[in-house]
Amino acid sequence: MKRITVLCLLIFQLGFGNDMEWSKTGHRTIGEVAQQFLTGRTKKALKKLLNGQSLALVSNYADEIKADRSFSKYGPWHYVNYPADKKYTEVAPSEEGDIIIGIEKCLEIVKDKNSKAEDKVFYLKMLVHLIGDLHQPMHVGRLEDKGGNDIQVQWFGKGTNLHRLWDSNMIDDYGMSYSELANNLPELTKGQIKNIQQGNIYDWVEESQEIANELYGSVQVGEKLGYAYGYKYWTTLEKQLQKGGLRLAKVLNELFS
Hints:
Protein name: S1/P1 Nuclease
Shape: globular
Number of domains: 1
CATH architecture: Orthogonal Bundle
CATH topology: P1 Nuclease
Radius of gyration: 18 Å
Structural class: mainly alpha
CATH superfamily: P1 Nuclease
InterPro entries: PLipase_C/P1_nuclease_dom_sf, S1/P1nuclease
GO molecular function: endonuclease activity; hydrolase activity, acting on ester bonds; metal ion binding; nucleic acid binding
Keywords: Disulfide bond, Endonuclease, Glycoprotein, Hydrolase, Metal-binding, Nuclease
Distance between the termini: 57 Å
GO biological process, one term: DNA catabolic process
Strand order of the largest sheet: 2-1-3
């Protein structure tokens, strides 16, 4: 019985250790922010495809389907790991796919007038999630430590790792619902919003990697983290949630224009 338990734990770690995401609250926050910046045309298209469901509601779909092994091939779409001194376009893409390949595939299928309705819905839900993941910096981390999954630290006395710290620990311990987070993000001018929405997924992946490179230097293995770390980096996390929502809105508005 003990061997079976250990084997199950190993399978879980191998299967999911490198593709953890923003917590449910994080993804829903991004979806809620995006919802506020959609054009009327986009809202109409989404209402039809998603049967009235909000972006916040569908934002965790790509995580939920992991319970079904038939969707395992989409696991590598949640992240990309490449050397800190390289750009995404300077390395050979993974044969299994990555977050950029995944986003491009989603856009291709949703955009194609000949795609089946059920395929458009599936890849639209995936797209909402993947744009969110693109803004979790540790999803653009280093291959050798699985995007920070192998860097063990403590968060308020409990074991975690650098990846999980940014996925969920800080967000969940902040104690706000996704709607509270979305509605209490910094107010931005039209100019600031336009600036955030500039560029494309290739620009945004490099931005996330730049933040990830900083975060690697923010901890030491085994370090005990708590209020001081949260105070220092909450603004960065908050900005990434806001950027994710604004850029998701941009992507969807362009998709359905």
